Amino acid sequence: MDKFLIFVGAADDMSAYPLSRLLAIDCVADGVLNFRFESSIGGGTGAEHDLQACTITADSEFATVKIVLEKIANFSKVSFSGPQFLVIANDITGEYLVPAITALASTQDS
How far apart are CA 37 and CA 49, in angstroms? Predict the structure, then answer.
């Protein structure tokens, strides 16, 4: 069974992606950490992807990415009997993987 990364933006806005579908984590703008996944609705050209954009503390991009990657790597090593999901961002409860994450915006098949 695959492990999942969870993103919750609102009461009716939630995504759980298999870790194996994570394509990239990047920061292409100040204060934004992007998680890019293979499309959940199936694009045809190979360029389509889902985007989970986390607002983060400005100018903390490099430090935040390092911590996030470390936490995801450690999570991926947990045995089958351990947790099978990792919450990256939950705007409803205010639960975020790292303190630098403060909000979430989701786009499917961008």
Answer: 6
